[in-house]
Predict the structure of Hydride transferase.
Amino acid sequence: MKDSMKIGFALPQFNNQAYGIAHTATFASAIEEAGGASLWVGDRNLAAVRPAVGYGGQGNTIPPELNASADPFVLLGVAASATRRVLLGSHILIAPLYAPVQLARSLTTIDVISGGRLLPGFGIGWSPEEYQAAGVDFTRRGARMEELLDALDAIWRTDPAQYEGTQLSVPEHHSPLKPARAPRPPFYLGAMSERALRRVARRGDGWLPLVVVPSYVDIDGLVQQRAFLNELARQNGRDPRAIDTVLRVNINAGTSTALVADAIKEIHERTGIDHFMVDSMYDVDTVDGSVEHAREVLHLVDKG
């Protein structure tokens, strides 16, 4: 792979690909064999029929491609058992929707099955209806995220484990089963706003930005955001080099693989980002088609 770039791909989870999830293990092993570096899931608790807030916090509509959604934890578990090398990530889990003990248990299980290959990525989401369905206060999601990270840290590092905050309470309990990666899996955090970037700078092990090819590829914006993140990290006494980046690459319908590969190479050259996660759910309908799409992207990026 060019300059040791890492190219990962979304597991079949959304849109028409969701109806092919019975082939998740085959997909995962095929991507690993083709040279993919990582496999990823997203998270959609539900897509509201009449959303108060639209996709990405904009407008009042949600793309129909998000209506069908498979469970991210199950998919990662299947992929973990079907592979030996690729990293397994979430870009992103809407973490405040989950109770900390159950979230820790699911992620620990995946990390142990995979032998320590989990990259858990978290965000706070934008859909009030998803929070309503989970019985969680949407207006306090940022504060809940902060406490959730503290609770996960406690559960993963200590035994017995407990946590007491204003949003979350975890009673003292036996916690002997730990993730394979000590002392805990890294926290990757989605962030575009200043507040979210400040959270990454304070406590993130990785940053999860996003582009859409070709409709939203703001390389200058990525450079500026990363520079701001680096400065915030230094203000918090951290080495910016300790904060990894994995860039999600969504693809508009009808986009050629050549254009996707060219965008990845240009972003890499201008930003230094070396790990990309490609999601073809808007452009490819079948699991077999997604495997072939991934192979073409890997080939074109590798050609240089």
Q: What stands out?
A: The two ends are 9 Å apart (CA to CA).
